[in-house]
Amino acid sequence: MTVSSTSHQQEHGRFITVMKDILARPSGRIGLTLVLFHILLALLSPLIAPYDFKLQNSSLMLSPPSSEHWLGADHLGRDILSRTLMGGREALLVTGIATPLAVIWGGFIGILFGLVGGRVDEVLMRIVDAFLSLPWILKMLVLIVTFGTGIGVLIPTLTFFYGIPVIRVARAATHDIIARDFVWAAKARGHSRISIIWRELLPNVLDTLMVEGAMRWSWMLLAFSSLSFLGFGVSPPTPDWGLMISDARGFMSFAPWGVIAPVIGLSSLIIGINLSADALAKALGIDRAQKAPM
Amino acid sequence: MPQSSFIDIKNLSVGYTSRNGKIIPVLRDVNLSITRGDSIGLVGESGSGKSTLALAAMGYFKRGLHVISGQVQFDGIDMLNIERNALQRLRGGRLALIPQNSGQSLTPNLRIGQQISEALRLHGDLPATSFDVGVIDLLSQVRLPDPVGLTDRYPHELSGGQQQRVAIAMALASNPEALLLDEPTTGLDVTTQAHIMELLRDLAKDRNLAMLYVSHDLGAIARVCNKVMVMYAGETVLTGSAKQVLLSPRHPYAHGLLVSIPRLNEASLPQALDGRPPMPSETITGCAFADRCKLADQTCHKSPPPLNHLETGEAVRCFHHDQIGQLNQKTEKSARSNPTAADKGTALSLANLAVSYSQPGLLSKLFAPQDTPPSTVDRITIDIKKGETLGLVGESGSGKSTILKTIAGMVPAQSGNIILNQAERLDMMVEKRPAAHLRQVQIIFQNPDDSLNPRHTVAQVLAQPLRLYYGLSGTPLRDRSIDILEQVRLGEHYLERLPSQLSGGEKQRVAIARAFAADPEIILCDEVTSALDVSVQAAVLDLLDVLKRQDGTTYIFVSHDLAVVKAISDRVAVLYQGRICEIGPVAAVYSAPFHPYTDALLGAVLEPDPDVAPRLTADDVVELSPPKTGCPFQRRCPRKLGSICETDIPTAQEIAPGHVIHCHIPQLDL
Question: ipTM greater than 0.85, yes or no?
Answer without folding.
Answer: no
